[in-house]
Structure formats: structure tokens, C-alpha cells
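Q: I'm writing up a methods section and want to include an example of the input and output format. Could you take the sequence below and give the corresponding predicted C-alpha cells, formatted cleanly so I can copy it straight into the document?
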Amino acid sequence: MSRKIKIGNTFIGGGESVKIQTMSTFKISKQEALEDAIRLEKAGCDILRYSVLDEEDALSFKKIKEHVKIPLVADIHFDYKLALKSIEGGADKIRINPGNIGEEKNVKAVADALKEYNIPVRVGSNTGSIEKEYLSKYGKSEISLGESALKNVSILEKYGVENIVISVKASNVPLTVKSAKYIASKCDYPLHIGVTEAGAEYNGVVKNSIAIGSLLLDGIGDTIRVSLSADPERELVAGKSILKAVGLLNTGVEVVACPTCGRCVWNCMRFASKVENYTKDIKKPLKIAVMGCAVNGPGEAKDCDLGVAGGIGGVVIFSKGQIIKKVKEQDLEKEFFAEIDKWVQ
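A: Here is the clean output for your methods example:
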């Protein structure tokens, strides 16, 4: 089990729930960033990261924290002074690569500030930042990625920093999985997992689901980001779906639906989408089935709190495998959503 680390008012590692994070597309010093942070917190973000491009950005964390409770992370590259300013400015965590912020005294300055303010740091590597010594020796592999990350960790450890989170990412799914497993075998620091540069939403969700899901099922991973070329809120939706799928999130509504076939005589697929949309903001744990026919109906969905199955002449609404009522398809939305509301209340 990984060690537990505190970030703002939450924890990662040490058996804590897996935290979902995303990265804002707004410059933190702009007014839009505040509105966006409120939106993303409401959408289920556990940890929110910002690129810090200048001193104004670095000093803007306290302003955002007046309006949201989730931890905020400063993403720093090249300029160690921005890391120091972000720590002073209220960032709950820093993301740096010690190898790209200059000479050793710069790293020491950041390490001293991290210890003084008692905040954690995330370090790691991706396929674009593998240390040359490891790249030439091992090629682009889990060993070169893992050892590059561990080298950067050792630099911070040298100056007494222990609140460390590690990430090793690639755009290649097998390499991402192998690299995370390599790191997990070498240390007990919490791991941030995900596929970097995964692409647009459809393919990006597929790649992240395979990598993140397989790692979580093996007990590896403490915080996740489903990196997508899409609205950050879509990353959060995907992250929650992954956690539900692997049994690590018991909140909100899970909708199961059969893929349909020639036996289906009603528009099951369209209704399943309507149910997902209607329940997307419900926090209460609830399992709902939308089934195509009697073959995949109440019997197969006995474990569902509520369900619907089609048939000739209408559809049936059932709960825990027992039929509640039979209704006409044109009345289904009104009747079924009323049953959902009863469960929620």
C-alpha cells in the first residue's frame, strides 16, 4: 500500500479513495478561471491543476480558494521562482520536474519552501522527458520512464522532501501500464496515473479506461486524470465512470443497458440515453437497468434497484426483479422518471 499524503483538505494514498483530477484550460489569474473552478468542483473534481505562467498566476491561488474547497495545484516548468511564488500564493501542491528548473540551488530553494509550508510535490516523467542516460541505455521503455522519475524523486529526497507523488505517463497504453507497475514495485509513494496525450474524447476515453482501469484493478493508482482534448468536465465524467466500473465509487447512478438485438421491439437505446441524462446529477447510489426484451429483462437485472424492459404491446417497470407496472411506450418517460424520483426521495 502507498503512503498517505495530505493535499489541502484531502488525502491520497494509504488506502484513501482514489481522487479524480483535471487541469483547467484557463489562466488562473483571469476571472474566467474562478467561474470555471466553481463549475468543475460542482462536477466532481477532487483536485484541480493550473499552469502557472507568470507571477500574477502564482499569486492567484488564494483568490480561487476563497470560493472552492478542493485542493489547487500549481504546474511549474523551467522557472523555480514561480514555484516559490505559487507556494507563497496558496497552492496546495506543486507539480515540477527538478531536472528542468536549473541548477541545484534552485531545487534546494523549492525543497525548503515545500517543507516550510508542508505541502506535497508531484514529480514524474513522460515519453518526452526521459533522461538521456536512461533513454540511451534502455530505449523508450518502462525502465527508462521509471528510472527517470525516480532520479527526480531522489533529488528532492536529498533535501528532505518526503511528501511526493509520482507519475509516469505515455500516450501508449501498454507502456503507461508497465511504467506504473514498475514504479509501484520500486517505492511506496502515491501514484498519479493516466494516459498522456490520449486524444479527442472517444479514443481518449478508451485508452484511459484500459490503462487506468487495469492498474486500479491491480491495486495501483491513488489519483487519476483522464487526459482528453475536450472540456475538463468530460474528463471528470469519464473518471467517475471508470471508478464505478472497477468498483471504487459507490455514489451516483449506474445505468446498465443491453446492446439490443432483433428481439427488441422498442427504442431501448434512445431511452437509455434519456435515463443517463436525467440521472447524471443524482448523488444517491442507484442501479438502473434499461433492457431490450423479456430475455434480458427483470430476471437478468435482479440486482438493479429499478429497471425497464420492452415487450409486445408495451414495456414493464420492475424493481429487484419484480414487475411493478406495465405501461405504454409513449407513457414510459413520465412513469419511469417518477419511479426514479421516488427512489431518490
